[in-house]
TrEMBL record:
Keywords: Protein transport, Transport. GO terms for cellular component: ESCRT II complex. It holds the Pfam family EAP30. One of its GO terms (biological process) is protein transport to vacuole involved in ubiquitin-dependent protein catabolic process via the multivesicular body sorting pathway. This is Vacuolar protein sorting-associated protein. It comes from Brassica campestris.
Amino acid sequence: MRRRPGIGGLQKAAAARDQYRLLGENVAKLRTDMMKEQLATFKSQLEEFARKHKNDIRKNPAFRAQFHDMCAKVGVDPLASNKGFWAELLGIGDFYYELGVQIIEVCMLTRSLNGGLISLQELCSHLRQRRKKDREAVTEDDCLRAISKLKVLGSGFEVITIGKKKLVRSVPTELNKDHNQILELAQGQGFVTVEQVQRRLSWTSGRVIDALETLLEEGLAMIDNGIKDGKCQYWFPCVSSVYSFVGSDT
């Protein structure tokens, strides 16, 4: 028979467990302190880097994107506030605030054409035309960052992905799966027909017409009845390059 450990043995075992626990806590604290120290060093180096390359960050979109990646890795958000160190050093908060205002303007001016749904690529094209005089190029990455800040204001702006395209939505339109599939199908030539959707998606004509009518009512589609074969074409400005914004250079 095995002998049960006495009281002394149990006390030694408990003491050993306490020592291991304390050792583990000390190691964890040491690691946390080291990480905090490293993070503080990284942030200090990042600030020095920003001072040295201030003009490049403001003027060069590729450089600006790399700078944002560096910030993300050390938990710094230069856009978190329009005041403070980063805003004073780079004016980067003002850059994205101004860009956000211009995004709202473009979306409002094009809403009658696209129903409040515009491709990110087209939006950037309009913004570049507007900002030619400023000589501050903007990229899709810049637009995405500016839009993410607009969402905080509860402005209804958001970016959705349909097929291979990113679309910026500026109206509270709810698109269901059927609508998204039709928009994705339209990306090939900018339009669809009832027959085409039926054939490609294996839907009934009722389902197709119901979805297309909703998109028409929301202002996201335009109908062309002047086709020789008699088949109506449903055009979608948000995924078509046919429609252009006349006021983009104003």
